[in-house]
Amino acid sequence: MQILGIDYGRKNVGFAIGSSIIGNSSTFFSKSYKNKNELIILIENLIEEWGIDSLVIGLPLNMDDSESEMSTEVRKFSELLKGRFNIKVDLVDERLTTIEAKSILKEQNKKTDYIINENHGLAAKLIVDSFLRENI
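User: That's the sequence. What structure does it adopt?
Assistant: C-alpha cells below.
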C-alpha cells in the first residue's frame, strides 16, 4: 500500500510517500500554495503519480489533548479529500513533529532558509513513519 503523508499548513504543506511493504517513508518535500484548489490539484497529481492508496494527515492537537482551531481545519480538509478522491484518510497525532523536524535538520547542519522550507516535508515523513509503526 502506498501512503501519502501530509503535514498541512495554511501556507505551506509537507508531503511524504510511504509504503506499508517497506514499513517507512523515503520521499518527502515541502510546497507553498496560494489557495485550496491549487493544493487539491497538487494532491491529486501526487495520488496519480505515486499510485497512492491512502492518505495520512497530521492532526495538530494541543498538549492537553484538546482540539485547536487548526485541528478543526485539518478535520474539515481531511473530509474534503476523502469525498473528492474516494480514498481512505487517517489522522495521526502530529504534536511535536515540526519541532522534531527542525531539530533533525539543524543537526544535519542545514541552513535556516532550508529548515523553514523543508521542515514540513520532514514532519510529513515523521507522521507517515509513526502511522506505519502503529499500523503494520
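The chain has one domain: 2-135.
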